[in-house]
């Protein structure tokens, strides 16, 4: 049984390949590229015996499944990259594109690994969602929509989570003791676990779908300002489930990932969006999440105060980017939540109305009927 203490220990200490990379970095002062191998090859050949000794120590200390977090066959790595060096000029002109089949076993929807410290980063993209969680320290990510486009540097601090959509090119270099965990998720599982608990018809759901799955958006999300201990705790739960293979392991991992996302959406106070929407548009994510968290008790005045806008200006920019007003969005969120309660809870209509923010049950029923063309009870009976 692999415990969270065992995982924490392995994440913290240097693996065999990390030690080799760190030694090279300390001696040479830089690690430019995986393809710049002529000098490195001689170095790795010289350090090979030390690598094998360290690898043997780790093999004796940790179960093989944990070692898969950053499993590297140095012999194969050397041969492969020396061959790549022969085609260096060609390779540098082409981005690296990763496919689903390279990361996911047939019964797995998630792949998790520790980013190898002191290893040189190369721009790459993929056809799945990648999430980078900063477990310790500070990490710089470099992102671009495609080759030749301007790079954007994103500095991520401990507890931050970066969500990178399919097709977005990025690279990362870690040249200190900072630690980053990569969580790779296929698109179907991401939609089910991240968006699954957000009503499908809601503007928040549409917004995240547009940001993460539209080929034109070229956007990524950075979540920050949450309770680092809570998020780390949920992530470790996920890793324990991931590493301890059981009969229903894949489904258990999906559930833990869903819990992690719920904590992320509930905990994080700041959500940074990088896209074509500009500065105003970047705030839409935070406004939508704020409404989603507080829909039952907020007003237009409170939203405007929270984001330091006048009511008029807030409504104007919200309608410009979202196509609706703040009050309409609050109302829609309340009604969407009431649908979930009618489906999943045996609460009375009066209790549901009060729960979503309406003291006047008759007014709630009137709004519900106007939107869904049936009363709340008719809606519930149709489901049953």
UniProtKB/TrEMBL annotation:
Q: Which UniProt keywords apply?
A: DNA-binding, Transcription, Transcription regulation
Q: Does this UniProt record's set of keywords contain Phosphoprotein?
A: no
Gene3D superfamilies per the UniProt record, alphabetical = Homeodomain-like, Jelly Rolls
A Pfam family annotated for this UniProt entry: HTH_18
The HTH araC/xylS-type domain, residue ranges: 285-382
Write down the superkingdom of origin: Bacteria
Question: What's the protein name?
Answer: Helix-turn-helix transcriptional regulator
Annotated source species: Roseburia lenta
Tell me the organism's taxonomic lineage.
Bacteria, Bacillati, Bacillota, Clostridia, Lachnospirales
């Amino acid at each position: 049984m692999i415990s969270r203490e065992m995982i924490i220990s392995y994440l913290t200490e240097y693996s065999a390949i990390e030690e080799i990379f760190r030694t090279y970095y300390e001696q040479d002062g830089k690690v430019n590229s995986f393809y710049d191998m002529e000098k490195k090859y001689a170095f790795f050949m010289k350090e090979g015996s030390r690598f094998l000794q360290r690898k043997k120590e780790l093999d004796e200390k940790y179960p093989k499944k944990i070692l898969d977090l950053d499993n590297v066959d140095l012999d194969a790595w050397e041969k492969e990259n020396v061959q790549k060096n022969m085609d260096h000029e060609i390779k540098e002109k082409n981005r690296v594109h990763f496919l689903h089949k390279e990361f996911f076993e047939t019964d797995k929807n998630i792949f998790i690994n520790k980013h190898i410290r002191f290893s040189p980063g190369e721009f790459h993209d993929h056809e799945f969602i990648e999430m980078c969680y900063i477990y310790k320290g500070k990490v710089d990510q470099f992102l671009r929509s495609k080759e030749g486009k301007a790079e954007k540097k994103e500095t991520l601090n401990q507890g931050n989570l970066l969500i990178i959509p399919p097709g977005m090119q990025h690279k990362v270099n870690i040249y200190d003791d900072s630690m980053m965990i990569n969580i790779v998720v296929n698109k179907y599982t991401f939609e089910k676990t991240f968006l699954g608990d957000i009503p499908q018809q809601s503007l928040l759901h549409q917004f995240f779908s547009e940001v993460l799955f539209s080929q034109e958006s070229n956007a990524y999300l950075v979540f920050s300002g949450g309770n680092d201990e809570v998020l780390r705790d949920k992530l470790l739960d996920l890793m324990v489930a991931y590493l301890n293979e059981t009969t229903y392991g894949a489904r258990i991992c999906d559930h833990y990932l869903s819990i992690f996302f719920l904590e992320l959406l509930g905990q994080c106070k700041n959500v940074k969006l990088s896209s074509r929407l500009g500065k105003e548009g970047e705030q839409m994510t935070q406004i939508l999440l704020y409404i989603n968290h507080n829909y039952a008790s907020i007003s237009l005045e409170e939203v405007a105060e929270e984001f330091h806008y006048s009511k008029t200006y807030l409504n104007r920019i919200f309608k410009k980017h979202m196509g609706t007003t703040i009050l309409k969005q609050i109302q829609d969120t309340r009604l969407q939540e009431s649908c979930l309660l009618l489906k999943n809870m045996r609460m009375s209509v009066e209790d549901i109305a009060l729960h979503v923010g309406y003291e006047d049950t008759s007014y709630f029923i009137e709004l519900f009927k106007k939107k869904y063309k049936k009363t709340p009870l008719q809606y519930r009976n149709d489901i049953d």
